[in-house]
Amino acid sequence: MNSDQIQTLIAMVLYMCCVIGIGIFFAKRANKSSNDYFLGGRSLGPWVTAMSAEASDMSGWLLMGLPGVAYWCGIADAAWTAIGLAVGTYINWLVVARRLRRYSVVAGDAITLPDFFSARFREKKKVIMTIAALFILIFFTVYAASCFVTCGKLFAGLFDANYQAMMILGALFVILYTFLGGFLAESASDFMQAIVMIGALSVVLIAGTINAGGIGAVIENAKSIDGFWTFFATATPETVDGVQQVVNGAPQFGAAMPYGIMSIVSCMAWGLGYFGMPQVLLRFMAIRDEKELPFSRRIATVWVVISLFAAVIVGVIGRALYPTEAALLTKSGAENVFVILSQGMLPALLAGIVMAGILAATISSSDSYLLIAASAVSKNIYQGLINKKASDKQVMWVTRGVLIAISLIGILIALDENSVIFQVVSFAWAGFGATFGPLMIFSLFWKRINQAGAIAGMLTGGIMVFVWNLLIKPLGGIFAIYELFPAFVLSCVAIVVVSLLTAKPSAEIEADFERARTGA
After folding, report:
1. Residue 44 — φ and ψ, nearest 5°?
2. What is residue 77's predicted lDDT score, i.e. its pLDDT?
């Protein structure tokens, strides 16, 4: 290991020590009860609510996946996705946050998403709770795997180490941290990590622009590649066995591919996912006062817009500065562009701090995913169905056991070092968006929805994500649209049709709805 790598490692270790310190600080309070461990006793302030929601949401794909897409094929895919996410963020905070915070208290003081849906319909047999918990377990295991892939790529690239070994090491760190402090530690560290993430993006953006000769030079280079600098076409790297070809020191591209309305709809559909994202929705439930939500909304929206814009442009800058870098000549390898830029432009110690931004993004998401998935099993299935008299201590032990099991499955999924982070995340994102998004919107704003409609909507959305991705999408053409959009629409249709064809909700459920609506 050379001196630059040692300095980078020192900076990252110091950062990891800070994160562990936060976990230890909150460990005593987190272990008082499952309510404190899973929702922090509804005590989050507006800054922590906003920043932790966005940091846990974005994960390592913000610093690796999104710049990688922009580097590989230009701004169209990356920019339309970023626009969809920014719009979805704002609407989610504006429309869903206040009503969910209020309704989660009305609905039995729910502390998990399955808890809320079950109490919303006053379930006795806990069917909705069970289905919701199982879908959370499935999709968050995939999500956690994407974070472990990020850890593996990051450390393997930085220290010329074995990918699998580095991936497992990163996963173990995340597991240890999640064990310690629960939701409060997760939220507090996510606040710090959100600052590190946006700081890292800003530093690389500014340094990259200067090194490339200014923003004009970056744009001119992008325009020189057919389809790279436009919202309505996409560049097509010429590859052999997945590796982009380089001739006379220049990367080779074929003719640009048109980027039509269906492609734009696919990317914009990412915004629909927010309505079903447990890691974001839980922050709405955990804020100490719903009156602080408008301030949180402004913080979250500004952070998201700046971060997404910077991530896309970092990929474009990388294409200008490192067009033929061997590590970036595959679609999977292109996701290392942020790492390559940091190492190439910044002093080793500062590069280490910037690299901590990727680690921050990964930790802030994976701890959320593991905690929510574990709570779905321990709180909703174990205590809700198997052992209804289980003590808080028993629930906590089951939570930690499930957390380890989920992590092991995630590690197995992440063993393939050629995994493309963006693609893994997009599937899990579609899963949550289609399974819970329509149900959340109708639960909060439509009095007529009933238990049967809720079950139909969840099953339709969740199953259709798999069906569309595996069976229909490969047909191409109009069917190549991102699976979130058709699954979301069909889930909405299922909720409305089944609810109207079955009995209306009870008077008690309707009364709960009115209390949540009026705040009475």
Report:
1. -75, 140
2. 94
